[in-house]
Amino acid sequence: MPLDLLYELSSMTSGTPFRLMEKTSLLLIAGILCAGAGQGAVFLDENFDSYADQTAFQAAWPINGTASTVLNNEQFVSLSQSTKGLTTATRNARSVGEVGFLNASTDIVIFRLNFYDSAGSASAYRQYAELDDTAAPSGGGQLYALGLNNNIVSTKYMARILGADGGAGAGAFFKLDDAGSPDRSTGWHSLEADISDNDVKYFVDGILSKTVNISALTDRSLDTVKIGSNLSATQVAYFDDVHVERITVPEPSALALILLGGFGLAAGVISRRRKS
User: Fold this and answer.
1) Which CATH class is domain 39-248?
2) What is the pTM of this model?
């Protein structure tokens, strides 16, 4: 339950300001409800700022293909470095550990990054990042990519799911083009895939931009992040703030019990206010 709703419930009983004890009670209730609504296990939270130089970066992110992306401070979101995909073939990979299977689970795997589109009005070019199962995925559900690719013409950002059809053919890059989705533009953009057992919801700059059904795919335990396409490109791109997290979402029945308990605590607080 949002904290502002709890404040509203309490304020309905009196126009006087909250006492410290009442505020503490409401914060405790909100904390309990938030904890019950979802707990996360973070597998990667990378802003590239801790690396002293290219050598240190490549020690943590070994080259995966022809050459390395470049640690730089030309463009960044979090201070003060990012990594740059060149027009020549560049890619690095990092193992994040086994995220785990999602079969018959309500859990969600979040794959998110900041992507700098260096030429938002130009044709789509081959620059993207991936969350994979194993270093060289070849089966359905083993690869989830975010960024741009030149296999389709679009003013939208793109994604790919190995083995699934998002609108451009099985396994191909597809447009994140649902109603209200942002168009490409030069600069930084947040790209996110929320992967569940049955579908993937894609967000561009926080706006839901595509939902793809993956219920027919084989369930996989994802374990590797790659930045850069390892393909030549007509434009450079930058990558920052790469994040992988598994969110544990309670079953609906369990969540209902948590909410009922929270409402009971809130009602107790309000009752005590009325008696005081």
Assistant:
1) mainly beta
2) 0.81
